[in-house]
Write a structure and sequence with these properties.
Elements lengths: L7 H12 L7 E5 L4 E4 L1 E5 L2 E6 L2 E6 L3 E5 L47 H17 L4 H21 L3 H14 L4 H13 L3 H14 L4 H13 L3 H14 L3 H17 L3 E4 L3 E5 L6 H22 L7 E6 L1 H8 L8 E2 L3 E4 L8 H20 L5 H12 L5 H17 L9 H15 L1 H12 L4 H8 L4 H16 L2
Parallel strand pairs: 8-9, 9-11
Antiparallel strand pairs: 1-2, 1-6, 3-4, 4-5, 7-8, 10-11
Helix pairs in contact: 1-7, 2-3, 3-4, 3-5, 4-5, 5-6, 5-7, 6-7, 7-8, 8-9, 9-11, 10-12, 12-13, 12-16, 13-15, 14-18, 15-16, 15-18, 16-17
């Protein structure tokens, strides 16, 4: 079972990039696992905290939230758009030259979020003409052009249109190859698309130009962490924090230092698609090899089922039981999780048994679901699909209990099907598969990865609203289990 919001693009990169594109205000939702999420706004509903960031929403179980720190609006300068005066450490990092937050160049206003493609093309062509035809004002018009391109890149990034965003940032770098905002944006796009090698090379070049830029350093920390270089990640974050203290970066440092204190001397074995790290004193190479062989055997099947091929090796941590809970801060009922890396407690396991195979397959499914959806699949869909892949089916007892709940809520005129539980997630996904087909569920995940909200993805690809699908699920449960 994952804490999907700990997926590193949702908990770290999203904060960094979103800070570059938003106004200087955000409440901070602090998670019990040490992560934090900046929120434009948030509401509590049915045991979930629904966090809004621009045009995207993230759902977190209320039980996973340690506290919500409300941050007052911070005044900005109308002249520069920069934050005025002292601000609290809970705000997202300011992005002085980062995409979408650079001060407007004289004579050109920042484009609106809903600027049409035709208007954007006209503005770009006009500035290119000025650069070409007005040599005395070339430097000024180049600055305006770079600002416009990075703003457009930032807006495309917020829509999760990473190809378009990357093209804008690359075009900006074609005008000014040393522009920190475009370098940051390009690296962020690569990282969001799982191309860590390109993200790292982009940031290495950027840090030659801007060695003291805290945002570039913080993003480099994320790249190092994803490449399983925790010492380098901590070093990059510490440099960023020394330049500009920030609570989010501080929490990243603390989290990885805690993990490193536990797994710093773990052994490593590599398979074709996996990097496995394990406590050599309690889990020998034979178990690591057996787990690697099992995961490799499941990999090709999941590639076909989800029409998705991970770009990077999937990192798997095998912990002694107590070290698992110390490293992840998970509850003792958790048998495994995926937070961008698969983490499972192996205890005194000497060879794979049925239960451990199920846990590994469940968490591996989360890696594919997260990758296919760009980290946007809601918890109920994540868990329903992962249980389905694991081979679980809804029992008659669970089906009957859900059917009675549907009829009770239906008679009361209350909302049905939005509260999370593992049995309800599995049952709903089973109904969706019967109604839409598994292939269409995969297409819905893909639509989320391409920038659609959960509701939009179901309505446009599934041809039904979620409300309609939940209603038909409840009616089907009642028909099969009660009538």
């Amino acid at each position: 079972m994952p804490t999907s919001l700990r997926f590193r693009l949702a908990c770290a990169l999203a904060l960094l990039m979103y800070g570059a594109l938003s106004a200087a205000r955000a409440d901070l939702v602090r998670l019990k696992n040490g992560g934090s999420i900046a929120a434009d706004s948030w509401v509590e509903k049915d045991g979930m905290v629904i966090i809004h960031q621009g045009d995207r929403s993230i759902q977190v179980p209320r039980a996973d939230v340690a506290e919500i720190i409300k941050q007052p609006a911070v005044p900005t300068s109308p002249a520069t758009g920069k934050v005025e005066g002292p601000v609290g450490v809970t705000r997202p990092p300011a992005q002085p030259p980062a995409p979408g937050n650079a001060p407007a160049a004289p004579g050109i206003a920042p484009p609106a979020a809903d600027i049409s493609p035709e208007e954007a093309k006209r503005l770009i062509e006009d500035l290119k003409r000025r650069v070409r035809d007005l040599p005395m004002a070339r430097a000024t018009n180049e600055r305006k052009l770079v600002l416009l391109l990075t703003r457009l890149g930032g807006e495309a990034y917020r829509r999760r249109d990473y190809d378009q965003a990357r093209a804008r940032f690359q075009e900006a770098l074609g005008v000014d190859e040393h522009n920190a905002g475009a370098q940051f944006g390009l690296a962020a796009c690569y990282l969001a698309q799982g191309q860590d090698i390109y993200a790292r090379s982009t940031l290495e070049r950027a840090l030659i130009d801007h060695p003291k830029d805290p945002d570039l350093l913080a993003l480099m920390g994320e790249v190092y962490y994803g490449q399983e270089r925790p010492e380098d990640a901590i070093s990059a974050w510490q440099q960023a924090f020394a330049i500009r203290p920030d609570q989010v970066v501080r929490e990243r440092i603390d989290k990885v230092q805690r993990e490193l204190s536990i797994d710093h001397d773990y052994r490593r074995s590599d398979a074709a698609h996996f990097t496995i790290k394990y406590d050599g004193e309690r889990a020998g190479p034979d178990l690591s090899r057996e787990i690697g062989d099992y995961l490799e055997g499941q990999f090709s099947d999941l590639v076909q089922r989800f029409d998705y091929y991970p770009r990077q090796a999937i990192i798997v941590f095998l912990y002694p039981r107590q070290q698992f809970y110390d490293a992840t801060q998970a509850g003792h009922d958790v048998t495994g999780l995926f937070d961008g890396k698969i983490r499972v407690p192996c205890g005194g396991l000497k060879q794979l048994d049925r239960e451990s195979r199920a846990v590994l397959l469940h968490e591996l499914a989360h890696a594919f679901i997260t990758g296919k959806s760009g980290g946007q699949a809601p918890r109920w869909l994540q868990e329903g699909l992962a249980q389905k892949v694991e081979g679980l089916t809804t029992s008659d007892a669970d089906g009957a209990a859900l059917a009675r709940e549907f009829e009770d809520r239906n008679r009361a005129g209350a909302e049905w099907g939005t509260a999370f539980s593992y049995p309800s997630s599995l049952s709903f996904v089973e109904h969706l598969e019967r109604t839409l087909g598994f292939h269409r569920l995969v297409d819905i995940l893909g639509a989320m990865g391409d920038g659609s909200t959960v509701d939009e993805a179901f309505e446009t690809v599934g041809r039904y609203t979620l409300q309609e699908l939940r209603r038909s699920w409840g009616e089907d449960l009642a028909r099969r289990h009660l009538h």
